[in-house]
Design goal:
Structural class: mainly alpha
Largest sheet: 3 strands, antiparallel
Helix content: 40-55%
Mean pLDDT: 77
Strand content: 5-15%
Shape: rod-shaped
Number of helices: 7
Strand order of the largest sheet: 2-7-3
Length: about 350
């Protein structure tokens, strides 16, 4: 599918200048000095034979099979083969060629890779990259650059490393050469074939704002969900604390209930024992009353008998006073007086004649 662009018809890509008034600045004959070769040798890039090929009088780059076009200033800033997978993916997503990146852009990419792999301990993260960097066209009002026509810049609202880059690297686009491509077994795809005349077209992937807005929205929602989850966890903690307190009170109440039941059993036993004692006492009192009643009845009978005897004896006593008592009569009366103490039947009349 062809890339989507925001180009205006009859204008230069990235400008509002008519095409007939714009100069397209492209390839020139490579001019690599001895000092440049010494620099490459010092960096160890000339140890392997045929790893680099310096072009002759070519005014347009045509890399041999198995080689890729690069620049001295790209190599100095850390570019090498095999091309890092993050750089391959970046070129694919942005739809650009390697030679269309400026030296400072290459340095930004390599610093970011080092940051992720050596400091964060992870693979270079594409969302983090788009949060920090954006792409812009590298052109002036009347000039469109084909070589180095794309710049990678740090977003102004992002706090990033305060790396001082030169505003421009003079003559870097004239110091191009060929570097031998290398591959690894894990490499799934390579960068697009070289096209020195490829037009730089702005894609929607250059602008990460919609994606970042979505990510920021998701992040805000996540923070809200996280805060809500924290509140729920705090409420759950308070509920668990209240539940523990209620469980402790319930346990105390259960112990109090068991103690009350035990006390109730003791009280019931005491009540039963008291009732039994009262019943026994009542029975004993009843028995004592019955005994008292029997004794009282006997005593009353004896008193009645004595009264009857007294009534019977009184005339005899009076007679004895009037007449001398004979011994036989006195003995007789004493003998029968003892028998008279036994209770006669109620209603029985006792007279002195009964003793005679």
């Amino acid at each position: 599918m062809p890339p989507r662009t925001k180009l205006i018809k009859h204008t230069t890509p990235g400008t509002n200048t008519p095409m007939d008034k714009v100069e397209i600045f492209g390839w020139e004959r490579s001019k690599i000095s001895n000092q440049d070769q010494k620099t490459l040798k010092k960096l160890g890039m000339l140890k392997k034979q045929d790893s680099l090929i310096f072009p002759g009088d070519e005014s347009f780059s045509r890399p041999p099979i198995g080689y890729r076009v690069t620049f001295i200033d790209h190599l100095i800033r850390g570019l090498s083969t095999p091309i890092h997978e993050f750089l391959r993916g970046l070129l694919f997503v942005y739809g650009i060629q390697l030679h269309q990146l400026t030296p400072n852009s290459i340095l930004h990419i390599l610093i970011f890779i080092t940051l992720c792999e050596c400091f964060l301990g992870t693979h270079p993260h594409w969302s983090l990259w788009k949060r920090i960097f954006y792409l812009r066209r590298n052109n002036s009002r009347n000039i469109v650059y084909n070589v180095g026509g794309v710049c990678i810049c740090v977003r102004p609202e992002v706090d990033y490393f305060d790396v001082k880059f030169p505003d421009s690297v003079q003559g870097w686009h004239r110091r191009w050469l060929y570097i031998q491509e290398e591959y690894v077994n894990s490499q799934e795809y390579d960068i697009a074939p070289f096209d020195g005349a490829a037009e730089i077209l702005r894609r929607r992937s250059w602008d990460a704002e919609p994606v970042m807005k979505h990510l920021i929205k998701l992040g805000t929602q996540f923070i809200g969900f996280r805060d809500e989850a924290d509140d729920l966890r705090e409420a759950l903690r308070r509920a668990e604390k209240c539940a523990d307190a209620l469980a402790a009170k319930l346990e105390q109440s259960e112990k109090a209930r068991e103690k009350a039941e035990q006390d109730a059993v003791v009280v019931g036993d005491l009540r039963q024992r008291l009732h039994n004692a009262e019943s026994a006492l009542s029975d004993k009192v009843s028995q004592q009353i019955a005994v008292v009643d029997v004794c009282s009845s006997k005593l009353k009978r004896r008193i009645k008998n004595i009264d009857k005897i007294n009534d019977a004896v009184t005339p005899i006593a009076e007679k004895m006073i009037d007449e001398p008592l004979r011994v036989d009569d006195a003995f007789f009366h004493e003998y029968h007086y003892a028998d008279a103490l036994d209770a006669p039947a109620e209603g029985e009349k006792v007279t002195i004649d009964s003793f005679l």
